[in-house]
Model the fold of this input.
Amino acid sequence: MLKKDCFFVGKVVKKYSFKGELLVKLDTDDPEQFLKMESVFVEQHKTLIPFFIERSQLHKSSLLRVQFDDVYDEASADALIGKELFLPLSSLPPLEGDKFYYHEVIGFKIHDEDFGEVGVITHVNDHTSQHHFEVDSNGTQVLIPINDEIITKVDRENNTIFIDAPIGLIDLYL
Done:
């Protein structure tokens, strides 16, 4: 399995017990959707390795307490601390309406209510506190915040996201 065919689930943050149980910080608003996972891919040395889950349960808010098969001692658990977990993109439930996964909108056009067609989404930056689309507008990069108040419609049929950007935002770049 290649990393580009997967999505980030979360990161192992610490041990829970001396029997190899681990706590995973999930990257989701809906942690319950990950309770029925049978396996995950763990990134080790830039390679995704499958790990099968013996049992899991929610721990506090967005932490998942996990017992992996064959990880039954502290040394095995220590080796997984800080590792990132992934699942195949095919295991994502389809979204409808104006909800979308970041990976699925790469290549979508951005159309602003006032400006018209802005350009094409080349990347989604989610490494900042305000996530944003990176849009190529005839060779110029335009950054559009991903915000429910700005995005008015997601048209999957025509690969277009309609926005109502704040006055002057697009002009700032162009």
